[in-house]
Q: What sequence folds into this?
């Protein structure tokens, strides 16, 4: 990782060209593989939830969940897509409206499909990927008593060899994807917070400001990480969900409420009616659509898969005692429902006739920084805009911290052989290393280098897709060995005791 970082710092243009060329080649030749694989993974997740294996617990049969449902949901969401929702909540629907996959830009058809296309990228497919990796790790860790590590998912295929070079390679790939994926996300988060502070307090929106933000948030993440999952990470996640919910409700009430309802309803209908067609669509007969799908949908699939070991590991760590059915349905449906609501409130408001022109003008003026300022351009047009912008900056900052500390925790577990409570000194080291990586890349080449590194993370998605398909097979093979005569998941402890006695 030091060598890769040194290459990016010493020759940023070369790194951008190198990773960009790999990404371009992968998108050209393997788009079909990503699209087909993600659809198969989604189908496998649905089968797991509906099959008789859904009654099995992630742990011993008498285990019960470690965290309450609302705490579990809060941590799921904070680790999964928190920063991205604030960063792209307005920007992505507006970008699809301005540059649709087919047809004329800013047309009625482009307006109608802007939100459904966003739902497609952030919806069931993405969380199915997270669900399968998280479920596999939790199953083999808590039910088969293997280390809390990605390598454990491949025990039915490789056996004891997972403790050798095969397992090391798998975990090292996961560390690469997590560290550099987080670095690019932290860079994006820093630009968003910096843009918010510039609008609120008039501070300079410069690289120096962004570096200070990264330093402060890395310190906060380190403190949270040292206190552990039960205190720092859990409390941060719960607090941020309350603040984010307050911001969401306020924008919903003072914004174009009727338009939001209409957008949500219609967009859900289009999302589900076009679900299977969109899931396998490649646009190979239309160069414009093919280019759009490769640049948007396929990049998202590769990104979610490369990023999934981090989210999967963290979700597995907090999910002991839940049934397979509860795990899959909760991980897939609850965050997706909140995500759709968030995009409908923020993206739907930005697309409304009353606010569309102002948001478009601000994003155009921002140029390459349009994504960072998009949410603030919307909030500035609403009542009490200063308070709303401040809340948005707070939300993205805390999501920033919760993503950083949970990602550091995952890297700690991976690099300590799957230990669920890695040493404190190691937690400090990785949290600091992740913040330093983001800061160095931002300082030497700005957002441009971070984008180049993101291309490298997307490239990691190809080998991880192969590993995910192998993981699905390994999990299926392991489930076939399970007995399904356990008590039902809704049985009381007394009923379970009677059943076991019989």
A:
């Amino acid at each position: 990782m030091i060598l890769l970082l040194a290459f990016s710092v010493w020759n940023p243009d070369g790194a951008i060209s190198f990773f960009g060329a790999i990404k371009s080649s992968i998108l050209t030749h393997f788009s079909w593989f990503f699209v087909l694989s993600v659809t198969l993974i989604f189908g496998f997740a649905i089968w797991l939830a509906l099959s008789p294996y859904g009654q099995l617990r992630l742990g011993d049969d008498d285990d019960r969940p470690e965290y309450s449902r609302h705490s579990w949901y809060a941590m799921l969401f904070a680790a999964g897509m928190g920063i991205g929702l604030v960063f792209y909540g307005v920007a992505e629907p507006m970008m699809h409206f301005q540059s649709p996959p087919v047809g004329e830009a800013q047309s009625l058809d482009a307006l109608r499909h802007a939100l459904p296309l966003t739902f497609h990228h952030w919806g069931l497919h993405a969380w199915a990927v997270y669900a399968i990796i998280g479920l596999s790790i939790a199953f083999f860790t808590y039910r088969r008593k293997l280390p809390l590590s990605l390598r454990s998912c491949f025990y039915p295929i490789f056996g004891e060899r997972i403790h050798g070079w095969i397992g090391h390679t798998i975990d090292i790939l996961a560390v690469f994807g997590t560290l550099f994926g987080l670095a690019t996300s932290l860079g994006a988060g820093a630009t968003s917070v910096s843009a918010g502070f510039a609008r609120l307090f008039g501070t300079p929106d410069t690289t120096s400001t962004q570096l200070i933000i990264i330093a402060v948030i890395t310190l906060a993440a380190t403190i949270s990480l040292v206190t552990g999952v039960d205190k720092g990470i859990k409390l941060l996640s719960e607090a941020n969900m309350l603040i984010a919910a307050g911001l969401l409700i306020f924008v919903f009430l003072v914004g174009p409420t009727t338009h939001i309802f209409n957008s949500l309803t219609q967009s859900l209908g289009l999302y589900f009616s076009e679900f299977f067609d969109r899931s396998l669509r490649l646009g190979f007969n239309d160069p414009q659509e093919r280019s759009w799908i490769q640049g948007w949908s396929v990049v998202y699939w590769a990104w979610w898969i490369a990023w999934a070991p981090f989210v999967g590991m963290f979700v597995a760590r907090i999910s002991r005692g839940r049934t397979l059915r509860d795990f899959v349905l909760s991980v897939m449906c609850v965050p997706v429902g909140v995500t759709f609501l968030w995009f409908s409130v923020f993206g739907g408001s930005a697309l409304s006739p009353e606010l569309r022109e102002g948001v478009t003008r601000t994003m155009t003026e921002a140029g390459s920084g349009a994504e960072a300022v998009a949410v603030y351009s919307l909030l500035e047009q609403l009542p009490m805009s200063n308070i709303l912008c401040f809340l948005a900056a707070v939300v993205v900052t805390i999501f920033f911290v919760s993503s950083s500390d949970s990602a550091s925790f995952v890297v700690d577990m991976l690099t300590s052989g799957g230990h669920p409570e890695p040493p404190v000194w190691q937690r400090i080291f990785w949290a600091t290393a992740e913040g330093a990586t983001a800061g160095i890349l931002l300082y030497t080449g700005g957002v441009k280098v971070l984008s180049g590194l993101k291309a490298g993370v997307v490239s990691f998605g190809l080998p991880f897709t192969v590993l995910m398909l192998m993981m699905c097979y390994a999990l299926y093979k392991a489930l076939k060995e399970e007995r399904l005569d356990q008590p039902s998941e809704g049985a009381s402890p007394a009923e379970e005791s009677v059943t076991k006695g019989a």
Remarks:
- The chain is about 80% helix and 0% strand.
- The chain has one domain: 2-475.
- The domain at 2-475 is CATH 1.20.1740 (Amino acid/polyamine transporter I).
